[in-house]
């Protein structure tokens, strides 16, 4: 047992050193996996490297390349302009529209891609006299919802890791759960931060912004129309295959549609190559490789046994979800998902908790805290607040919201998802 504990301590220590030195976690994790595998687990190097998740790498590269083309040829910008142009002065719809737009962009491979909406959303909030906190939470919840799409990073890591562990988790179920929870949080934000006032003011302002009502928007080009059709084709294919209970290989599908767009628009395809998220591939690959070494040593099973000794499975589930939210509020959500989902597998294997429900709960709890100003998302929302005098208030309120989600998230997810799933 001493060797397993030592390996787990090294695993945690790599997280700490990476945060302290601001070093790339994936590089340190891969080196740590090799060291622990060779010297503590007595594994040949070939077995250590075999733990690298090639399937997840294909997913990440294929999806980020495909949507990189959509960004490079201006399709994403055109979609944003068209959506905002239809809203006009209907103020009450703006938070919902920005939720949907941010979710859509976050679903295009990289969750942080949704942050491109932050400057636009906060500017519109300032011009339309919308509480910046409401707009910030619209953006934050939208990003969290879209991040768990089958085509985005959090969704890829969560359901991909679950599938590798033999847990039956549909990517569409994961997405629907995440969207439902984030819509609930948006409704709470709407009630707390001036939504009722927007309903009373709806259409009562004559102020307009070019991004919302421009009459000179350019029409979609031929390549942009083709890109929209390819996006609909990718999404539609994933839905059809999932509904018919056939496992969609989203990475291969993204490469296939991306290849079509490459032939139609080679210039945009070349610009999409640098948009491939190699940093995240390395991050996820390093963590999962280390987790593979821990699994081979039995350290993961030991951790699961310790969690199950809590006695009450629901308390163990609450504990894991609480850890996911607490650490993710200050550190990488991607790293937390890659690390905690495998650590929860022994608890699932005991048969006391439905695997799909617990994995969904962990994922949502790790993401809804991201509006904390200590994270990239929260810091961006504060930085893009137009009125400097509002930024201290935004920092204070986002900190309260994010840290409250550390506690509310596990209670909400376990109460509404895990407990009903156990009763089935």
Automatic annotation (TrEMBL):
<keyword id="KW-0812">Transmembrane</keyword>
<dbReference type="Pfam" id="PF07158">
    <property type="entry name" value="MatC_N"/>
</dbReference>
<keyword id="KW-1133">Transmembrane helix</keyword>
<feature type="transmembrane region" description="Helical">
    <location>
        <begin position="278"/>
        <end position="298"/>
    </location>
</feature>
<feature type="transmembrane region" description="Helical">
    <location>
        <begin position="401"/>
        <end position="423"/>
    </location>
</feature>
<protein>
    <submittedName>
        <fullName>UIT1 family transporter</fullName>
    </submittedName>
</protein>
<feature type="transmembrane region" description="Helical">
    <location>
        <begin position="225"/>
        <end position="244"/>
    </location>
</feature>
<feature type="transmembrane region" description="Helical">
    <location>
        <begin position="52"/>
        <end position="72"/>
    </location>
</feature>
<feature type="transmembrane region" description="Helical">
    <location>
        <begin position="92"/>
        <end position="122"/>
    </location>
</feature>
<keyword id="KW-0472">Membrane</keyword>
<feature type="transmembrane region" description="Helical">
    <location>
        <begin position="172"/>
        <end position="193"/>
    </location>
</feature>
<feature type="domain" description="Dicarboxylate carrier MatC N-terminal">
    <location>
        <begin position="1"/>
        <end position="147"/>
    </location>
</feature>
<feature type="transmembrane region" description="Helical">
    <location>
        <begin position="343"/>
        <end position="369"/>
    </location>
</feature>
<feature type="transmembrane region" description="Helical">
    <location>
        <begin position="310"/>
        <end position="331"/>
    </location>
</feature>
<feature type="transmembrane region" description="Helical">
    <location>
        <begin position="250"/>
        <end position="266"/>
    </location>
</feature>
<feature type="transmembrane region" description="Helical">
    <location>
        <begin position="134"/>
        <end position="160"/>
    </location>
</feature>
<feature type="transmembrane region" description="Helical">
    <location>
        <begin position="29"/>
        <end position="45"/>
    </location>
</feature>
<dbReference type="InterPro" id="IPR009827">
    <property type="entry name" value="MatC_N"/>
</dbReference>
């Amino acid at each position: 047992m001493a060797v397993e504990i030592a390996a787990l301590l090294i695993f945690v220590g790599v997280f700490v050193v990476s945060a302290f030195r601001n070093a790339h976690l994936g590089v340190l994790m891969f080196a740590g996996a090799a060291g622990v595998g060779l010297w503590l687990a007595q594994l040949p190097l070939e077995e250590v490297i075999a733990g690298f998740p090639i399937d997840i790498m294909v997913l990440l590269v294929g999806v980020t390349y495909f949507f990189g083309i959509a960004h490079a040829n201006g399709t994403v910008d055109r979609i944003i302009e068209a959506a905002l142009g239809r809203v006009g002065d209907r103020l009450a719809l703006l938070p919902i529209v920005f939720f949907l737009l941010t979710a859509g962009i976050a679903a295009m491979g990289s969750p942080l891609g949704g942050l491109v909406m932050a400057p636009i959303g906060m500017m519109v909030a300032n011009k339309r006299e919308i509480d910046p906190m409401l707009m910030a939470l619209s953006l934050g919840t939208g990003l969290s919802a879209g991040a768990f799409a089958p085509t985005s990073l959090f969704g890829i890591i969560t359901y991909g890791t679950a599938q590798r562990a033999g847990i039956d988790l549909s990517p569409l179920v994961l997405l629907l759960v995440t969207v439902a929870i984030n819509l609930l949080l948006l409704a709470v934000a709407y009630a707390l931060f001036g939504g009722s006032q927007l309903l009373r003011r709806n259409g009562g302002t004559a102020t307009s912004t070019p991004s919302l009502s421009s009459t000179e928007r350019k029409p979609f080009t031929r390549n942009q129309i083709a890109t929209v059709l390819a996006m609909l084709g990718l999404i539609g294919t994933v839905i059809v295959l999932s509904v018919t209970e056939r496992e969609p290989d989203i990475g291969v599908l993204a490469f296939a549609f991306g290849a079509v767009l490459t032939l139609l628009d080679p210039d945009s395809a070349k610009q999409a190559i640098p948009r491939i998220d190699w940093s995240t591939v390395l991050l996820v690959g390093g963590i999962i490789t280390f987790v593979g070494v821990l699994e081979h040593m039995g350290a993961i099973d030991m951790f699961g046994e310790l969690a199950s000794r809590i006695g009450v499975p629901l308390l163990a589930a609450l504990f894991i979800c609480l850890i996911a939210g607490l650490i993710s509020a200050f550190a990488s959500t991607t790293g937390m998902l890659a690390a905690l989902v495998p650590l929860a597998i022994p608890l699932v294997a005991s048969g006391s908790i439905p695997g799909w429900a617990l994995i969904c709960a962990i994922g949502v709890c790790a993401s809804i805290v991201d509006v904390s100003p200590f994270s990239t998302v929260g810091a961006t929302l504060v930085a893009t607040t137009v009125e400097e005098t509002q930024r201290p208030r935004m920092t204070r309120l986002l900190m309260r919201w994010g840290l409250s989600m550390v506690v509310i998230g596990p209670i909400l997810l376990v109460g509404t998802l895990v407990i009903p799933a156990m009763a089935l």
